Each structure stands twice: as C-alpha cells, then as structure tokens.
Amino acid sequence: MYFIALATDYDGTLAQDGIVAEKTLAALERLKKTGRKLILVTGRELPDLKRAFPELGVFDKVVAENGALIYTPASEEERAISSAPAAKFVAKLKKHGVKPLSVGRSIVATWEPHETTVLEVIKKLGLELEIIFNKGAVMVLPSGINKATGLAAALEDLRLSPHNVVGVGDAENDHAFLQACGYSVAVDNALAAVKNTADLVTRGARGKGVEQLIEKLVKHDRKLVRKRRDGILLGSVSGDEVYLAPTDTVLIAGSSGIGKSTLATALTERFVEAGFQFCIFDPEGDYDGLEGAVRIGDGSSPPTKAQVLDLIGKPDTNVVVNGLALQVNERPDFFADLLPGLGNLRFHTARPHWLVIDEAHHLLPKRRDDTRAVLSLELPGTVLITVHPEAISTDALRLVTAVIALGPKAKNVIKAFCRETDTKPPKDVPSPKGERVLFWRPQARKKIAMVKAIEPRQSLKRHSRKYAEGHLDEAGSFYFRGPDKAMNLRAHNLMIFAQIAEGIDDRTWEHHLRAGDYSEWFRHQIRDKVLARETAAAEKDEMLSARESRKHVLDAVRRRYTAPATAPQE
C-alpha cells in the first residue's frame, strides 16, 4: 500500500443532511480492514458530532472545530491545539445580536450575513483571529488554525506522512487540508473551486462519491500516485524532465568509481526537498556526513536492528546505516534480520518512503537461499546500487521497474539485467556520452533514454570512512615488506597505514617511497588521485629526508581522511 490513510470531511462529503448512509459506513469499515487509518476532518464541534454520528469510533482520529481540536475515539482523549475564545469577543458578538452563535473549545461559529459584524468586532478588539467560510457557515479561529494544521497534528500522532494520505472534501474550508494531502479528491457535489484543484472528482455525490473513492483505493492504490508531482527528478532528455516514481524499484549499476554514489547523493537531496523520508544501507561508509540524515554505526561499532527501527520510526528522521564494522559475510544476515521489521513499518506507515541499498550484491546476494522469504512481494521506493547486478538476488532484480546504467560498461549492465531476469533485451543500446546515463523501464518496453543526470550540491569524500577505518581485503591492503622482504606488515586501512608508517625504520620507509609504492596504492586501491599526486611529489623529491617525506605523506593522509569532520576540506 502507498496510501495509508483516508482523511474525509463530514457534512456534504461523508454525510448528507448530517446523516451517514449505512453503505458509506460499511465502505469505511471495509477500508479500515485493509490496515489503513481513517481520519475525520470537520468544522463541527465535538459534542454535536457525537450526537449526529454515533459510529464515530470507526475513525482513528477526529479533527474537529475546523482543525482546532484533536479527538481519539478509542481513548476518548481530547487535545486542543489552539487557545480558547476570548470572553470579551463572545460577549461583543452577543451584544451586536449575532445569532445563532456557537462557542466551542476554540471555535466561534455563526452564519452569513454576520461575517461583517464579526470582522468589525475582531478589528475593534485587535484580536489575531481569522474567518473561514463553509457554504454559508462563518467560523472564527485563531490565525493559522485550519483543517490542514489539524490534520498535521493528527498525522503526527499516527506517525504518518501527508504524502500517504488521500483527502476528500466539498467546500471552501476543505481547500487547505486537501492540498496538504498526497492525493486530493472532490465529491461530485463539491464547489467548482474545490473540483478545479482536486486530483480526482468522483462521479457520485456525498457518501456515494466516498464509496467510489474507497473502492478505487482498495483496488488501485498505486495507480493514484502522481508520478510527476510526487516523483523524484532524475535528470533530463532534450529538455524533457525524467522522474522516478515513489513506487519504483530502481537499479543503479556500473563499474566502480563511475559516480553511482554521487547520483544517489543527488537523489537524497531531492528526497529531502520533497519531504520524503529515506534510509540508506551503507556497507562501505560512502555516505558519512550526508546532509539531512543521522548515521548509525561506524568503522568500529556496528549498527543494531533496534537502533535502525527506532530512528526510522520517527517520521522526520532520515537514516544512514553504516555497516563498515560488519564483515562482508555478516551483512546479508544483518539485512535479512532487519527486513521483517522494516517491512512491517512500511506496511503500516509507508515509511521510509525510499530505501537506498548500496552494495546491494552484499545485502541481497544471489547465493542466499532465503532471499525470497525475507523479501516482501514488492520493494516500492527502493534503489539498488551495485557494481555486480548479476550477483544480486534474482528475486530482487525481478522487482526492478527502472534501470540506470552508468559508465563505459553501461551496455553490460543492461545485458546482465536482461539475462538474469529473462527479460527481452532492448534494441540498439547506446553508449552513454559524457556525464549522461542510460535510463530504461523494462516493463514499459520503451527505448533506452540517454539522460543528463542531476548532480549533488554537497560533496562527499567517496569511501572516506571505508578507507580510513574499514577493512580492505588482502588484495586491496598495503604491505610493508622492506628491501629484503624481511617483514610483512599489512595495513588494511589508512589509519593502520599511518600507525605502521610512523613505527617502521627509515630504510623500509624509503624503500617503498622511492619505488613509488605509496602513490601507486593511493591511486589504484584508495582511488584518490589527489592524494596520489601529492605523495608522488614527495617520492620524486630526493632532497627530502626520510623524516620529512614521512611527514609530508602522513599529513596528506590525515588531512584528507582521518582529520575530524569539522576540519577544513580541500
């Protein structure tokens, strides 16, 4: 499910002449059985609403008094989110003959044509109040209080995002909360102004229209997603923008060091801008320092399942799960253990909206026999990033709806995906030019597009934590052996490299220095051309003593990788 809650107005939407039909009530109960939440958003005062609608308990939350009061039917808890009406204001209205006049916990209500008198009294008393109209009703509330603010408070209680709410209404005072919802609906009897701004207008009026909407929600939830408005911009083709839908499962693949993490970082910036919660599984420490996210785990402390689920449970918190302290063979087990809890959270809240799984071949490897069991039937809002698409679980690959291939081996990515998923390969696969990427929707059977992808505004030191604190394999490590190969000291990261380099004798240090071994390692294993160039300069400068060259190289390493996060960056 993508839409987790239905928020509906009462009078003129759910009810006709104040009464909810039995068929409409049955439809609400049917929707609730799917696991979705029901929220009533009304201008009515709570006592009046309870008298008119005894079945109020079908709703999980009630936003009453046009947004000023939050009521929980299950516990009968009431919570006012604005101040009570000033006694002098009510007294003045009565003195001026404003009738009928209703006073709630926060709202003061009457009918047209008393709005002129109400406005004059507000100005005379210098009160910060505003008038809201509802088909002839005149409602007075503290400034800034409306159905949208009330809905936001109710959603906070339910730990839901407005992206995953369908709203339905009919009148002027419904505008605010409808526009705050992920999908807005007007019943057929709604005012023209409401219909003009709604995503959908039902064929039926009032309760009939709500019944039709519920039927559509139950059967075609994902089809209601506005792919462009709710989508995430990937880039452009000949001036036309290309978007990823919130329901997509995306594969980003290409050779190492080609820009996969850079593209993913740019996408996270768009998630933040759009208000989508995200969680990144980061086995290699690529996303340390990512803006707008909290990191769990580091090079020495592995993340825990409880930490991840606790943080992701907070709707406004984005999370980077750093798996550097986990051995490669431990990562699939960690992810498999976490997936059920994560799937349960997504079922009930549709959050986090986006999962970014870097090094997906580590977390969802083909060799595991239980991948099908730990996977849900779908992975909506998921980005799988890998160098080796052929090593990812075939069950996961078959869920992919969009393929993004980068670099000189982009064609091989498409071929590998098609081979592993038994998908008919596209004709005429182009080679990406410059900074463009290949974009393909396998299920749509469209041609592959050459997209100029978006770029991130923030700069991350790629793999900085991995190389500084992680555990490079034997082939990727540096070995201090000396001129006579009398030693075999292995440095599996840059911190260990620096520690060993400080302790070895000058003869061993200079042997590797003059052979160009340090710059070679930095260039090909650490993949840092700038560090390699700085080191090569020291290697070629024969005027430097062992002490001076050692200081030059180690200062460069510490400045770029092991200095505090607040240290200035180049």
Automatic annotation (TrEMBL):
<dbReference type="InterPro" id="IPR002789">
    <property type="entry name" value="HerA_central"/>
</dbReference>
<dbReference type="InterPro" id="IPR027417">
    <property type="entry name" value="P-loop_NTPase"/>
</dbReference>
<dbReference type="Pfam" id="PF01935">
    <property type="entry name" value="DUF87"/>
</dbReference>
<dbReference type="InterPro" id="IPR036412">
    <property type="entry name" value="HAD-like_sf"/>
</dbReference>
<feature type="domain" description="AAA+ ATPase">
    <location>
        <begin position="246"/>
        <end position="410"/>
    </location>
</feature>
<dbReference type="GO" id="GO:0000287">
    <property type="term" value="F:magnesium ion binding"/>
</dbReference>
<dbReference type="GO" id="GO:0005829">
    <property type="term" value="C:cytosol"/>
</dbReference>
<dbReference type="InterPro" id="IPR006379">
    <property type="entry name" value="HAD-SF_hydro_IIB"/>
</dbReference>
<dbReference type="InterPro" id="IPR023214">
    <property type="entry name" value="HAD_sf"/>
</dbReference>
<dbReference type="InterPro" id="IPR003593">
    <property type="entry name" value="AAA+_ATPase"/>
</dbReference>
<dbReference type="GO" id="GO:0016791">
    <property type="term" value="F:phosphatase activity"/>
</dbReference>
<protein>
    <recommendedName>
        <fullName>AAA+ ATPase domain-containing protein</fullName>
    </recommendedName>
</protein>
<dbReference type="Pfam" id="PF08282">
    <property type="entry name" value="Hydrolase_3"/>
</dbReference>
